[in-house]
Every structure is written in structure tokens, then in C-alpha cells.
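Hi F.,

I've been meaning to write this up properly since the lab meeting, where we talked about keeping a consistent format for the predictions we share between groups. The idea is simple: the sequence comes first, exactly as it goes in, then the C-alpha cells exactly as they come out, then a line or two of notes. No screenshots and no reformatting. I'm using this chain as the first example so we have something concrete to point to.
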Amino acid sequence: MAKGPDPRDFLAIDALLSGEERLVRDTVRHFVADRILPEVADWFEEGVFPEDLAKEMGSLGLFGMHLEGYGCAGTSAVEYGLACLELEAGDSGVRSFVSVQGSLAMFPIWKYGSEEQKQRWLPPMAAGELIGCFGLTESDAGSDPASMRTHARREGDDWVLNGSKMWITNGGIADVAIVWAHTDGGVRGFIVPTDTPGFSTSDIHKKLSLRASVTSELVLDDVRLPSDSVLPGVASMKGPLSCLTEARFGILFGAVGAARACYEAGLDYAKERVQFGVPIASFQMTQQKLVEMMVAVNRGTLLALHLGRMKDDGTLTHEQVSFGKMDNVRAALEVARSARSVLGANGITLEYPVIRHMNNLESVYTYEGTHEVHTLVLGSAITGIEAFRAGG
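Output, unedited:
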């Protein structure tokens, strides 16, 4: 008699992965099991991120792992995505730390920096010896980043930056910030060591989401930088937007990890929790919830894997990344809410991972492009009409 499907891999997606892809996934999964899951509930409750994880992650090759050279691992896009999936199965804040370091701070240096900039910054960042952050969002310029007020002007051979950035992951613990600013020659990216005079940060507290993550405001008050601090390879919004596409790719994998963790917690709980003399998994309404969660996790994993294969083939567009980010995060949030209901009152405690993932996903739903903005990206792609502003 043939064995039935695996409840944790119902569509046998594992068989679609190569041996190298499974090795990367399993390595990160074991790291999360050993170093993240035993403590992350306490980090979340206390609102802290353990900075000592940086060098451990660096030693595993997690930072900029999809980049070539300069101490980076040079993995495939799928392998990077699978690492993000496993990291976010641990916690969204942990995956965000890796995404910001690799896709938002290292990627622009790798893509648009000079050879000197790459040699100076990328190896220590890949090793986790230097932490980076990405300064684009402002308090009045979220979904419309081109309206940023931060600006840079030339004074002799130097650049002088003024402005502020908001909701910056890693900001308060970063050694270097990639700051985007308007200049007379377009939007430019600047490599800003955080010990530069005039640069300061203020951490954002009282968060109820992404608590195991540092979120900060950056303030630039006449920050003077040498001429070689500017990224020479781009002078338009293409620069920061291409970085966001890189980060969103990691998110569309990562969200599936959070959903999987919630589904598996709900499945295990339903089989053990007894009411009316039987496990609650015996009840039709509970089974419906579990099935819907399982289907969403498998569907999201297949979508992520397909987009990862496209990225490795060089055919993936930013609109298709928006498709994955929008749908997988939406589905993950629905899975988390359903799992919370299966766990009942236990679902609101940090003894189980569900409420932590559910709260985190509320932020993931919004950052790196809100759900609404990604919807409009897709609307523009299929109609040829942009609708980001009223009237068209």
C-alpha cells in the first residue's frame, strides 16, 4: 500500500530541489533550530536583537550570499530564497536582518559601487564584521520614495548631506548606511559610515511587531563626506528601486516560512488538544482550517520556487516579484490568523510561535512596498495604465 502525502510537504516539493539546494536549506534550518527558536520568544518579548548573531551568520555565508566575489558565497537565487524561507520560519526580524544586510546594504555597493568601494566594504560585511542599513524611506515619503526630502550638495570635493530617514531596519546598530538623496544630478546613493559627524540615530520603541529587530530613525545634519562616498554607477530612482526588488525577492520566500511555522504549529496542536473527549483535529471545521493552511503553504512555496528559477534564468521581472511578494505575504497572514484561531487562547501566548509571526507579518504586509502598491504595480502591468495617483 502506497504511503500517503507528507502533511509537512504535501506536494512533495522537496523532490523539486537539487542536492545543493537541500543542503543550503537544511544548514539554515538547523541554525534556526539551534540558535533562533530556543530564544526568539524572549527576544521578541524584551524587544531586543542579539548583535552577536551577525558574525555567526557571516560564518555561514548568509550575508550577500547571492552575490559573486568579495567574500560572498555566490549561491543561486533559489538557494538564497530557501535560506530566507528558513530564517523567517524562525522570525521575520531575523530574515529582515539578513535581507537588509545583503540585498539593501551590500547589493547597491556590489551593483553600483566602484571597485575600491567593493573591496573596502563588501568583505567585512559578508563576514558580519560590519553591519549595514538602507536609508530610503522618510516619514513623509513611504510609498512615494521619489518625494524624499533628503538632499546632498557639493562643497568643493565633498558632499554634504541633510535630511532624515524613518523605519530603518538595523539603523541603530549599523556601522555603515546606504543613504539615498536628491542631488542636482539626480538621486544618488551614498556610503555613510555611522560614526561620521552629524549622523545620528534614534531607535523606535513600543513596537508590537518585529520586536526582535532594531528599527530606527536616521538623522543627517550637515554630514560631510568625501567625493568617493557616492556610488558612481547610478543617478536615478533606478538605484534604490532595484535594491527593493532584491529585498522583495527574499520576502516572497520568507513569508512562506512564517506561514509554514504557523501551519505546523496549528497541525501539531490540533492533533494533541482534546475537547469533548477527542482531539480537535477530529472536528470538520478544524480540518477545514488546517487544509486551507496547508494548501496556502504549498501553493506559496511553489510560487516562490518558480520565481526563483526564473531569477536564476535571468527572466524574472520586478512586476513578477511584486506578484510573489503581494500574494505570499497576504496568504501567510491569513494562515497565521487561522492558526491563531486553532490554538484558541494558547494562540496569543509566546509559548507558541503563532502570535509572534502574526504580528510580524503585519509589518511584512506593509514594508518593501505595501500590499496596495504591489496591487497597482500589477494593475499597471496588465492594463498599461499607471494608477498610483488619483486620476490615472
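Notes:
Residues 238-272 form the longest helix (35 residues).
The chain is about 50% helix and 15% strand.

If this format works for you, I'll send the rest the same way.

G.
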